[in-house]
Amino acid sequence: MQVTPNSRSRPAGDAAPVKVSYALWLVLLAAAGTFALTMGVRQTMGLYLSSVNTSTGLGIANISLAFAFGQLWWGLTQPFAGAIADRVGTARVLIAGVVLIAIGTVITPFMTTTWGLILAIGVLAAGGAGMAGPSVLMAASTRMVPAAQRGLATGIVNAGGSFGQFALAPVAMGLTASLGWMASMQWLGVLVLLALPAAWILKGNSNAIAAAAASASGAAVLTARQALARAVATPSYGLLAAGFMVCGFHIAFLATHLPGVIESCGMPPAIAGWALALIGLFNIVGSLGMGWAVGRWRMKSLLSLLYATRGLAVLAFVLAPKTPAVVLVFAAVMGVTFLSTVPPTAGLVAKMFGPANMAMLFGVLMLAHQIGGFFGAFLGGQVFQVTGSYDWVWYIDIALAAGAALIHLPIREARPARLAAA
Question: Which pTM was predicted?
């Protein structure tokens, strides 16, 4: 299978021509594999929270602040990383991101203060994960596959991130059991370097290709500022951002504090590792299913269904007795919805505004996502320290899920009229 478009002009920066001889599966393998490593390493960090607390004595609240800042910084880097990738090329951004993840993860065990943890976890590792994250990877995939297959492509790339969480959580537990938590975390930092070869496959940039197509048709390509101004003026884009913020709250709270929730219920740490692994495993199913579904049903309706399912699942978990079986079933249900919001969200952005500036526009939504993630990670630690329980965070989570399910319904999936006219 060949990728499109047929590039007869040479993009700028590191962008060699996007050759039609590139197999689609190779493109998707590179993007999904990169996301598997970066997301897998990032989402397993919650397994080390208790060990970091025991080693440093900083307290759950202070350590949660470092994790929460990482959620925010991961989002803050993505619009800028996306804008750079749109112009100078995906490869350079991915290489820088992967190297930063490795450095931040390797030095984390040496950090003994809150500011040290914020630097290692919150700035270096999280910033690198943002640069080699979904906004850049989704845009690269959208650029390199036929329009009719973009929904499935984003689902496959998204499933890569889920597979990374599923695969690396048991790896992290095994390394911790055999080598200790410090060496375990550092080996994960080394492992992420396996993503570097993918940068060569995904090289290129969206704006150069869009400029070539626009030149052939006599149209103009919007600058990043113009594209962002039009997106911000589009009400549906704002609703999409608000819903994605709720998604970030859910994911960050679970990724950071689900091990703590399980520990507070008196269950062994192995249950926490398997719960995170199940979230990753079942999100593979959810991501692939959602990638298939976005070409058949309205994406805003799919998003409403996902958020409603999350809210009902959390409500059932709060009311149910806390046993290992209940925890694992809950993890599986949440896994189906965990990152399944990404394919329809990215699909709506591409449908409303096209592939040009896609990395930057989706990066802005990822920023909104991670603002929610900051509060999910931070409030989890604060509420537990004050009340000794996570109950109030679950209540907030249920209310936010209900709100997110409702605010997606008014979204208009067609392109804004002024863009369609242009």
Answer: 0.69
